[in-house]
Write a structure and sequence with these properties.
Length: about 260
């Protein structure tokens, strides 16, 4: 009798569908607001976090976040420990090995040479000599690399962009490099006469997401979701939560 009952249950219950694994995103520990807020080694808010959260929700997938040092993000991606890296540019990973799909550009990152209010005269980096420049540990600065290599300029590395700006604020050096979003966030509650100033644009990079091509990852579906998020204005609405903008044209994505 028990055998017959068990057989009836198996016949009427239908096939068992395995739950799809969560999509694993990388978070660089050097990021700061408005990109991401990290608490207890997990992201809690920020424009990149919101983009990744929405991306996973549109795909009906749960999201898992791996916070790793910026120097190890590429290696973590290559060994398959993460599936998606957002806030990435191809020029940042020239030696990337493996099979990946790149999204269309989602944002334009503008890197600035930044100084203090008392030293805010516009100044191009190639006119600087024998200066220490505030930088983030593990970040590449292609436009300044030659000067770093020949010791015309020196790096002073900190763990995050906010630490770089804090050190500039207390005059540990006269110049630093940071992106426009981080500078605006840092300045948001400061009196005007204390705000740090961008004195030159040193680089502009289109950034997007990269997904490992793996049979367990719906890479093409994720790419289509990012395209819809960009075209529908969702990316811009996310950016507006943090009083900033993507830097891309409002009528569509920039060309890769």
């Amino acid at each position: 009798m028990r055998l017959l009952a068990l057989s009836a249950v198996l016949l009427t219950s239908g096939p068992v569908v395995a739950e799809q694994a969560p999509v694993r995103f990388s978070i660089a520990d050097a990021w700061a607001m408005p990109l991401v807020q990290i608490e207890d080694h997990q992201p809690t808010s920020g424009l990149i976090f919101d983009i990744m959260q929405s991306m996973a929700a549109h795909a009906n997938l749960s999201a898992e976040y791996r916070v790793v040092p910026i120097q190890r993000v590429q290696r973590t991606l290559e060994r398959g420990a993460i599936d998606v890296r957002c806030y990435a540019a191809q020029s940042w990973m020239p030696s990337l090995s493996g099979d990946y799909t790149w999204s269309l550009p989602l944002l334009i990152q503008r890197d600035l040479l930044i100084s203090t209010p008392d030293n805010a005269t516009p100044r191009m980096p190639d006119t600087l000599k024998d200066e220490t420049i505030g930088t983030v540990l593990g970040y590449a600065y292609p436009t300044l690399q030659t000067a770093f290599d020949n010791h015309t300029l020196r790096r002073d590395d900190a763990r995050s962009e906010v630490q770089v700006l804090q050190k500039l604020q207390i005059h540990r050096y006269r110049y630093a490099v940071g992106n426009q979003w981080s500078l605006d966030w840092f300045n948001r509650n400061l009196p005007d006469d204390q705000k740090l100033r961008g004195v030159a644009v040193i680089d502009e990079q289109p950034v997007g997401c990269i997904v490992r091509n793996d049979t367990d990852i719906p890479a093409q579906r994720l790419m289509r979701i990012l395209l819809r998020m960009r075209m529908s204005g969702e990316i811009d609405r996310i950016m507006s939560r943090y009083s900033t903008s993507s830097g891309l044209p409002v009528d569509g994505p920039a060309a890769p």
